[in-house]
Amino acid sequence: MTSYLTTRVVRMLITVLAVVLVTFFLTQIAFSNPARNLAPPNASAETIQAIARAYGIDRPWPEQLFGYFVKGPDIQGTPTGLLNWPPSLGYSYQEQRPVTELLLEKIPATLSLAAGAFVLWIGFSVLFGVLAARRQGGVLDKITSAFSYTFLSLPTFVTGMLLIYVLFYQLSLAGFRFFPSSGYVPITESVGEWARHLILPWLTLALAEIAIFQRVIRSSVLEVVGQDYIRTAKAKGLPDRRVYFGHALSGALNPVLTLGGIELAAIIGGAVITEQVFGIDGIGRLAVSAASSGDAPVVIGITLFSAMVFVVATFAVDLITYARSSRQ
Amino acid sequence: MTVLARRTSERRPRPSRGQRGRSDGGRSRLRAFLRDRAAIAGFVLIGLVVLGAVAAPLVAAIVGHGPLEQLADEALSDTGLPISGGNGFLLGADANGRDVFVRTLYGAQVSLFVGLTSTTIALVLGTAVGLVAGYVGGRTDTVLSSFTDIALAFPFLITALSVVTLNRGPQGDDLVDPAWVVIGIVALFSWTYFARLVRGLVIELKSRAFIQAAVGSGAGRTRIILTEILPNVLPAAVIYWAVQLPANIIGEASLSFLGVGIKAPTPSWGTMIANAQQTGLYQYQPWLLLAPAISLFITILGFNLVSTQARRRFDPRSSGR
Amino acid sequence: MPLFQLDAFSVSFADPGLPQRHRFALDTVHELSYSVEPGETVAIVGESGSGKSVSLLAATGLLDGDIRTRGRVLFRDHDLLSLPQASRRRILGKEIGFVFQDPQSNLHPFMTIGAQIEEVLTEHTSLNRTARRRRVLELLGEVGIPRPEEKAQHHPGHLSGGQRQRVMIAMAIALNPALIIADEPTTALDVSVQAGILDLLTRLQAEHGTAIVFVSHDLAVVSRIADRVVVLKGGRLVETGTRDELYENPREQYTRDLLEASRARIRPRAARDGIRIGPPLLEVTGLTKHYRRGRRTTTAIEGLDFTVGEGEIVGVVGESGSGKSTVGTIVAGLQTADAGSITLAGHPYPVGGRHRAGTTAPHLAPELRRSVQLVFQDPFASLNPRRTVFQSIAAPLEAHGWSRAAVRERVAEVARRTVVDEVLLERYPVALSGGQKQRIAIARALALGPRLVVADEPLAALDVTTQVEIIELILSLQQTLGTAFLFISHDLGVVASIAQRVIVLGPDGVAEIGRTEQVFTEPRSEYTGSLLAAIPRLDDSPAEASR
C-alpha cells in the first residue's frame, strides 16, 4: 500500500510538473512580446524595454524558468517563485496584481459553479440510471434515453444560450422575472441570491453530464444485473429496491467512479464556457482574457490549478478503486 | 469405451440477451444494425447534414447570396436591425446583412471537415500508442502511459487558447489556415482516449489463450500485434471513432465560440452563435441563434445515434443492451 | 402431499430469429413433471443444454430475460408462477434456500460475508441487530467455518473456494428452509473440497429434515447423495426413478450411455494397448520456479524430476495451486524455469534470465520450438475470434515461414488427422461447438509436427460425452503419429483413462510419480490416497456417504 501510494504521488507530481513546463514553453513562444502589448500603442522602444524589465521578461528563458519554479525577483513588491511561502505564481501584467491573489479571488465563483453542478449531476444520474436499468425498455428508460440523446447532442454554450433565451428572455417578456441572465453573487453576501444566480449555470453544466452519466450508470448496472451475485440477492428474497440500489449499484461502481474522476476534472473546462455565457467572473473568464491578452503568468497559473484538480480527482478515484479491489 | 457421437448444444444455462446476440455471425449483426430504427434515424440526420454541406455552393448560386456577401440594403431594416426572413432570405440575415441560411450550410462543411479529420488523426495516433504500450508493457508502457496521463491533465480549452496564439504571425495574420490549427488541437486532445481504450483491450487480449498459442508457436512480436491483436482491437477503436466524432465536432464549435477556432468571416456554427451572443440580436432575429444551434444539434445527434447503436451491436465490451 | 412439484412445466426463450408471433415457439424445457417429498433428496441430472438449471431458475422466478413459462410449479399449495412477486419473495430465502455453482461469482464481491448472511435475517425476521449478529456467527460455525467472528468481517475474496461455498450454504439454511435448491454446488471445487461440501449438505439434511433438489452433471456425485434421480436431455424428461433402480437397471439408452461414460472415466488405463514407449524424449531434473509479487516470493514448483518417453502420455494431476500449470508453461517454452535442467530430444531449454511473460517467449532454438506445442483449457478463449479456422491452424506454419502451398497442404492433413471437417475451415470460432474448437486447437498444435504436446486441462470446459471424444482423439494421435503428450488435469478420472504414467503434485511438492495402474490401485503416498478416496464413484451408496 505505501509503495503504491509513493509511486502514485510521485507520478502525480511529475504530471503536474510536466504540464507546467509545457505551458511555460508554450507561453514563451506564443506570447512573443508581451511588453509591446502592455505598452501604449505609440510607445518608444525604451518604454517597452523598461516595461519588460519591470516584469522580468527581458531575461533569458532559463533564468525566467528558474525564477518561476524556485525564486525570482520581486515584481511591484510581490515575491515570485514557487518556493516562496506561500508559493507565488508570479505577477499578472494585465491585472497588475499577484496571480495567487487573483486566483484565490476567482476560485470561489468557479467552485460554486462546479460543486452545485456536481451535486445535481450525481444525484440525478444515480437515481435515473438505476431506475432506467431496473425496467429496461420501460417508459422511464425511454424518456431518460431521449433526454440523454438531446443533451448529449447540445454543446454547453448552446444549452446555456437556449436556457437564457427561454427561461430568462421569454419568461421576462411574459412578465416573470425570476432568473437573472448573468452575474454572480458571493455566497457570503446572500445565500439565496447566490443560488438564484447560479441555477441556470448549474443546469447548463449538469444537463450534459447527466446525459452521459445516467447512461453510464444504467449500462454498468445492467452489466452487473446479469451477474450471479444479483441472482443470489434475488434468491434471498430481497426487495427490488435493495437489489438495485444496494447490491447492483455497489457492484457497478468501478466504471462509474473512473469516468466520474475524469468528468469531475472536465467540469473546469465546461466552466470556461459556462462562465463566458453567463458572465460569471471566475477562473474560466480569467483564462480567456489572459490568453487573449498574452498574460503568461495567469495562463500558467490557471493551467497549474486545473491540472492539479484533474490529478487529485483521478488520484481519489484510483484510491477508492484500489481500496475496493483489495477488499475483493 | 463407447464413443458417443452426440453433440450437445453449447448454450450456457443462463443465456443473457447479450450472449445470445453475440453468438450470431457478424453479418447478421450488421443486418440488424442497419435495420435498427435509431440507427436509421441517425443515418438520415447525417445524410441531411452532408447534403447541406455539399449543396451549399449550389444554394448560394440559386439565391444569389455568397456566404461572405454583405447585403445591407436588402437584409437590414430601416433601423439597421437584420430581417428575420423574406426578401429571398430564407432564415433572414445577420447584423452584417449576410444570408444566415447560406452561412449555415457552409458551416456544415467546416464542422464535418474538422470533425472527421481530427478524429481520424486521433484514432491512428492513439491506436498506435495503445498497441505498443499495451503489448510491449514494462518500461515502454510506463513511459507511454505517463505521456498519456500528462496529455489528459491539460485543460483542453485553456491550453487551446494559448496554442492558437502560436499561429499569430508578426503582423497579426495567421501563419496557417486556422482550420488546420483547430484540427491539430482537437486531435491532440482526443488521441489519449483511443490510446487508453486500445491499451486496455490489448492487455486483456494478451492474457488470452490464443495469444499464448501464437507466442508458443514461435511467432514474433510484430506478427502477433498485426495479425492476432490488431484485428481484435480495430472494431472497438472504429466504434470509438464514431463515439469521439460528435465530441470533436463540439470541440471545434466551442473553440470557435470562444473566438479562437475558425475565424470570422468564415462561416462556422460556433462563431455564428458567438456573434449572436455578443450582439444580442438573436432576441429580434432568433435564427441567428437557432439556425447554427439546430444544425449543430442535428449533426451531433445523428452521429450519437449511429455510434450508440453501433456500440450496442458490435462492441464486445458493451453489454449489448 | 409433495413439498415441491413441477407439473407439465415448459420454458421458452424468445428467439429473435423467429417472427414476433412465434418467437416463443421453441421450448428449452418441455412439459417437465416431477415432485419432491419433504426431507427427500432428488437429483436432476443431464449434460449442458439439458435444461436442468434453467427449469429450476425459471420455476422460482430467478431467470431473467425474455422468457415464457407454461404449466404449474407448486410449493406446498402455492403456484409459484402465478403468485404475486411480493408473496413469492417471502418464500424465496425463507422457505426455499439456494446454493449455486460458483461461490466466487455468486457472492457479492464488495460486501462482507457476515453482512450478506445477515441480510437474509433482516429481510425475513424481526430479530434485532445483536440477535442477527449472533445468529450469523452460529450459522458460520454450523457450516464449519473456523473463527466465525473474524471471518464474518471478511470479503469473499479472502476465503477459499470451499469456504465460500460454505458461506452460500449458511445463507441458504439461515431460516431453516423446507427446501434447498443446489445447482451444481460442487462443480467449481477441487475434489477433496467437494467431498466436504457433500458431507455438509447430507449432515444438515439429516439434522433439519430439509428436502434438497440437487442439480448435477456428474452421476458419480449424484450417486452419493440422491434418493431419487431425474434424468433430463434437451429439456425433456428421459427417465426418473430411485437411485438404485436407475443406476442398476437404467431403462433408457441415454441413461446407459451417461453411466458408461462416467464409469469409463475412472477406469485406470491398463496396459490394454500395446503402445511401445521409446527412449526418454523430455528429461527434466530439479525444475524450480518462484513467482515474485512485490516483496513476497511464492514457490510454484521446487526440484521436480521426471521424463516423458517418445510417444508416451504422462499425466500431471494436482489441485489448484499445486503448480501443475507452471510445469506446463515451462515445458511448452512460454516461460523459463529459475533452476534445473530441461532437455527435449537433447536440445536444452534456457534456464533463468528475465523475459516478459505473456508477450515474448524465451528464446528457444528453432528446432526445439517446433518440437513442443501447447493446447489450452478453454477452447472459447484459445482461438482468435477474428480469424477463420484455417487461418488459426495455419498461423504457426506462417510464423515459421512455410510457403502458401505447403501451408494449405499441411492444414488439410492435420484437419483430417483431428477429424475437423473441411467445411469448418472457412468458419469463424463463434459458429463452432466446444468440442469442435478443442479439436481445432489440437490441430493447430500438431501443425508443426511436434514430438511433444503439452495439454493444459484440455477437457475442463467440455461435457462428459465430448470429453470422451477428445480423449479418443488424443489416444488415436498417440497411436498413429507417435506424439507424446504431457497431460495436465485436476481430474483424476480423466488422467487415469489417458495416461501411461502419472505425476501427482501435492500442496508441498511432488507426492508421487508412477505407472497409472499402480498409482490408482496402490498409491504410495498418503496424499494420493486421500485424493483417490475423495473421488465420488458410482458404487458409493448414499447410506455410507451420510454416515
The unreliable regions of chain B are 1-24
Q: What general outline of chain B do the C-alpha atoms trace? A: elongated
Low-confidence stretches of chain A: none
DSSP summary, beta strand count of chain B: 0
Oligomer: heterotrimer
Helix content of chain A: over 70%
Largest contact between protein chains?
B-C, 50 and 66 residues
The CATH level-2 architecture of the largest domain in chain A is identified as Orthogonal Bundle
Structural class of chain B: mainly alpha
From the alpha-carbon coordinates, what is the Rg of chain B to the nearest angstrom? 25 Å
Largest sheet of chain A: 2 strands, antiparallel
Order of the strands making up the biggest sheet of chain A: 1-2
InterPro entries (chain C): AAA+_ATPase, ABC_transp_ATP-bind, ABC_transporter-like_ATP-bd, ABC_transporter-like_CS, Oligopep_ABC_C, P-loop_NTPase
Keywords (chain C): ATP-binding, Nucleotide-binding, Transport
Domain ABC transporter (chain C): 6-259, 282-532
Protein name (chain C): ABC transporter ATP-binding protein
Summarize this, please?
The complex is a heterotrimer of chains A (328), B (321) and C (547). Chain A is mainly alpha-helical and 328 residues long. Chain A has 13 helices and four strands.
